[in-house]
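ingest -> fold -> write
write: protein_1
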Amino acid sequence: MPEHSHSYSGRTTYSQGHVHHYGEITDMAPSGVPHNHFMQGSTTFNHGHYHNYVTRTGPATYLPDGRHYHYFQTMLRRADGHIHYISGYTSAD
């Protein structure tokens, strides 16, 4: 069965006077069946620190042309005494 991945990027919620940016590619998952993708990475280095995250996407949302995308949301790991959140959609593949 073929596999695929998705790209994603965005910026964190605002906390303690700043935001961070992030962007990565999900892990591979089977095509054509119900699936989620594993996501992990680090934000940009701002205000003397960065934040890590590990999460999974939601299920696939299909478009009329057969492509699909996934929604994600998670809390980032605490760093420098605070947290941020990320949420958004992967690319449609």
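write: protein_2
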Amino acid sequence: MNKGIRYALAAGLLGATALAHAQVDQVKVWAAACANCHGTNGHAEPGMESLAGKNKDELMQKLMDFKTGRKPATIMHQLTKGYSDEQLQALAAYFAAQKK
């Protein structure tokens, strides 16, 4: 394999790695907005709902219920409307992956 192809492949891999890293960081940024009520990485203080380690599908269903107004809330119905369904899916997956 010539050097040009090797460099092109290496650059492509580095670019893909950087993009994946940026996506992970974006989900962490979104999750940080949840920390006020649900604690850092979803580990809430007593009296608030912890999200860490919960079932991803159940979290997503709750988020969609807030977004559509099926589940009453004081603030969650407003917050969820600020995210796309794909962003909410990423948040649900992030919190589900956190250790309880």
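write: annotation protein_2
The domain at 23-97 is CATH 1.10.760.10 (Cytochrome Bc1 Complex; Chain D, domain 2).
The two ends are 48 Å apart (CA to CA).
pipeline exit 0
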